[in-house]
């Protein structure tokens, strides 16, 4: 949380309350990268669709880039003013309300609610956490709890309807953003390979994947280096999301 900012704890959130709202549920997350400043652009573009619902998740590092520094970096709370933005969450919201048995758990409810998750930007650190299976904040907890086979949601729906269900795993789209040397590092190559080749949507094999990587572009980075590693242009990210959801432009 940035100094001087006032936290607003979201009310307890239960995914089932929104199961039949007829909207595309987009869980938009940002991790610690300068490219977080493009989140307002992405939100504004997506929120123009009346049949979309957006909830945002920020890591502690990401939220520091939206603290009202400039017009390009408005305070994160200003994102609430966009149409169809229905919640903004940070780590402290996970246990903002004393938990009792049977109560909702935020990272599970967000996973249940989302039809698709977009992490833009995905930092080198969060990439490493995801591939390593760490879940030390709200964002990585949602990813770690993702239903990677569709079997969990299938069994839940089957219990409700009394009929066997076949549910494909929902997609996590990621837009990496990091320094050129970090992007070209052999460790990064191995980690991206896991997302694309082992977990990727459209991979070979019987089991459908659940990850889609939006490859970075080449440009002058905020640090002054010139090369690949910059997050894919936010307009292209929006276009991919619109295409995947079948939204008209």
Automatic annotation (TrEMBL):
Classify the source by domain of life.
Eukaryota
**InterPro entries assigned to the protein according to its UniProt record, in alphabetical order:** Flavin_trans-like, Flavoprotein
- List each copy of the Flavoprotein domain by range: 25-242
| Organism, as annotated | Coleophoma cylindrospora
Q: What family does the entry list? A: Belongs to the HFCD (homooligomeric flavin containing Cys decarboxylase) superfamily.
Sorted alphabetically, the keyword list is: Coenzyme A biosynthesis
The UniProt record lists the keyword Ion transport: no
Query: Which protein are we looking at?
Result: Phosphopantothenoylcysteine decarboxylase-like protein
Q: Which GO terms describe its cellular component?
A: phosphopantothenoylcysteine decarboxylase complex
Which biological process annotations from GO are given for this protein? coenzyme A biosynthetic process
Q: Which PANTHER family match?
A: HOMO-OLIGOMERIC FLAVIN CONTAINING CYS DECARBOXYLASE FAMILY (PTHR14359), PHOSPHOPANTOTHENOYLCYSTEINE DECARBOXYLASE (PTHR14359:SF6)
- Quote the Gene3D superfamilies the UniProt record gives: Flavin prenyltransferase-like
* SUPFAM superfamilies referenced in this protein's UniProt entry, alphabetically: Homo-oligomeric flavin-containing Cys decarboxylases, HFCD
Could you state a single Gene Ontology molecular function term?
FMN binding
């Amino acid at each position: 949380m940035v100094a001087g900012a006032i936290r607003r704890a979201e009310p307890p959130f239960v995914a089932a309350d929104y199961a039949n709202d007829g909207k595309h549920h987009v869980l938009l997350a940002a991790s610690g990268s300068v490219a977080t400043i493009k989140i307002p652009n992405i939100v504004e573009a997506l929120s123009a669709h009346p049949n979309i619902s957006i909830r945002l998740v920020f890591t502690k590092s990401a939220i520091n880039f939206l603290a009202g520094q400039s017009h390009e970096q408005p305070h994160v709370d200003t994102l609430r003013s966009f149409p169809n933005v229905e919640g903004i969450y940070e780590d402290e919201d996970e246990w903002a309300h004393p938990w009792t048995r049977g109560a909702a758990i935020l990272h599970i409810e967000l996973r249940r609610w989302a039809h698709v998750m977009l992490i833009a930007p995905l930092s080198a650190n969060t990439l490493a956490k995801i591939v390593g299976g760490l879940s030390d904040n709200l964002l990585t907890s949602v990813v770690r709890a993702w239903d990677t086979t569709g079997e969990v949601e299938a069994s839940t729906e089957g219990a409700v309807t009394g009929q066997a269900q076949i549910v494909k795993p929902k997609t996590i789209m990621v837009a990496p953003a990091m320094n050129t040397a970090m992007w070209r590092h052999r460790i990064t190559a191995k980690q991206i390979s896991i997302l694309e080749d082992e977990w990727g949507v459209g991979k070979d094999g019987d089991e459908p994947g659940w990850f889609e990587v939006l490859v970075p572009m080449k440009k002058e980075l905020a640090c002054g280096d010139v090369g690949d590693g910059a997050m894919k242009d936010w307009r292209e990210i929006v276009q991919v999301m619109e295409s995947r959801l079948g939204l008209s432009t």
